[in-house]
Amino acid sequence: MPEKERLFLTIDEAIAAIGNDFKQYTSQLNLLCVIWPLVFGEGAYVRLDVHNQSVWAKFPGKTKLIPSSESGLKQRIMDQLTRWPPDSQHMARICAMVFGAHATTGSGPEPNVLPGIWIDTDMADFVCTQCGRCCRTLNYHDRCSLIDYQQWRDLGRTDILEWVGTIQQHGRVVACRIWVKPGTNDYAETCPWLARSDDKNRYVCTIHEVRPAICRQYPGSRKHARMTGCRGV
Ligand code: SF4
Ligand code: SF4
């Protein structure tokens, strides 16, 4: 498996990645039910009362169930992981659940890096079906980087730069947004570079070779694809 299909995280990085996952994806109650006992130990569980739309959490050694919510459970899990980080094997099990991917313990790719978790992104055989959904529905407006901007400048792509909104300080561009209708502050209703292919059911990116990093990196994992409605296979 090529290295780029595997991602190495130290324990601290894995905890931060779990926090990001929690923030990024709502509606993960079922996942929280599964990892709750992994985080808090035997005897801990979460009970979902679908009828009353309530959530109850049980901690080991406590007799009472505590009323909670998805955000409350996430906060408690993050507090627990941050205060008492699990060993790498335990962390690998939690990561496998959270990221929906194979995770194993091991040494990092660089010398002197502490052992941590290898996560298979499982994207080696991902096939984009060119449905165009991500380009039409995901919010990427604030995700244009200065590296993207500089790349288009270096290439002299004024056609692309016309659609980039910039914030300048002391004559320097410090932030940018895509895709902004030229001469306005308004976002374009749809990406100006998205076009239907000859096969009318598919879409193509007309700046594919120089598209922004946010587009190149999507989807970052099978879970990311699943949670954002990607129709790739
Ligand atoms: S730049 Fe290309 S990949 Fe990015 S949203 Fe537009 S059409 Fe899609
Ligand atoms: S949503 Fe997924 S399958 Fe559809 S164009 Fe985007 S990456 Fe490809």
Considering the chains and any ligands shown, give keywords for the structure.
233 residues, binds iron/sulfur cluster, 34% helix, 19% strand, elongated, 2 domains
Describe this protein's structure.
The chain has 233 residues and is an alpha+beta fold. The chain folds into 2 domains: 118 residues; 95 residues, no CATH class. Helices cover 34% and strands 19% of the residues. A 3-stranded antiparallel β-sheet has the order 1-6-5. A 3-stranded antiparallel β-sheet has the order 2-3-4. A two-stranded antiparallel sheet has the order 7-8. Helix 1 packs parallel to helix 4 and helix 2 packs antiparallel against helix 4. The radius of gyration is 22 Å and the shape is elongated. It binds iron/sulfur cluster (SF4) (2 copies). One iron/sulfur cluster (SF4) binds next to helix 5.
